[in-house]
Amino acid sequence: MRRRLPALPSWLPVDGYILALVGTVGLAALLPASGAAATLADGASTGAVALLFFLYGARLSTREAMAGLRHWRLHLTVLACTFALFPLLGLAAGALVPAVLPPTLYTGLLFLCLVPSTIQSSIAFTSLARGNVAAAICAGSFSSLVGIVVTPLLAGLVLHGGGGGFSTDSLVSIVCQLLLPFVAGQLLRRWVGPFLTRRKKALGLVDRGSILLVVYTAFSAGMVQGIWHQVSPLRLLCLLGVEAVLLALMLTGTSYGSRRLGFGRQDRIAIIFAGSKKSLAAGLPMASVLFGAQAGLAVLPLMLFHQMQLMVCAVLAKRFAARAEADADAGEATPLGAAPRAEPADAVASGRP
Q: What is the pTM (predicted TM-score) of this model?
């Protein structure tokens, strides 16, 4: 009889996959790939990125995406938060360089503001909070699809001199490693889609394993080049503080903005969670393409922000769910699409969407 692996305690605020990422960074710090091993790891990482985006294309249901277009106001709101408000806040944070953030970490922070929204955790938190799950699925899917094109374009526009600007080589890499595999996945979805659907668990391991390989390659290159000596513990604390402010601004902005736009309670919950989060799964492969050997420090802000958003949004989702249950018990639950009730502006702080 097979014994099950022990699960992490439910009270532990750290996701098991985050622990795997931290362990991968530690492995790269102790045993970085160099020489022929680095060449082999880099080639494997390139193949893993292409495989990831092929799977993204093969699993994205065109029918679901087209059906979701009926809720276009919500999707445009999430896209505006992800690819307009986030980048504007990132550019505003440039005033903190070099007094608070060194240029290397600021480049990573700005890149964080350019990547698409996450899908899985947005759906999970929206469901937990009794929000519009279907809208969260479509919003996250649209964000990922748009991000494949928009994130590299925005990076070419705003990451001047930071290793993320466009060149002929970087453009070719983006097309070959991101766009072509994604398009191939969409074209072959009719034949490979059912196979992938039956093996979701195994493919999840492939997804996560590929990202761990990308992380190991990026951080190994950083160790070999000695770029970690450029960042002190105090600078990392400053980065965490800046990211905490960034997340608070986005949560408040999505909550207040969706209310002002007249969305119902369930739609507001979907907008809050889909519009305030960033995808580690999409950001890491993109960073490896855009930054190359400098991807180590470039992805550090994204990794820290990812863990922070999971912890904060988990607390908010539980508060939203408790409020929804209280309203249901009192017979005051807001129906989907109904006009929002008058509620205080500090809804996020009080746990009310």
A: 0.70
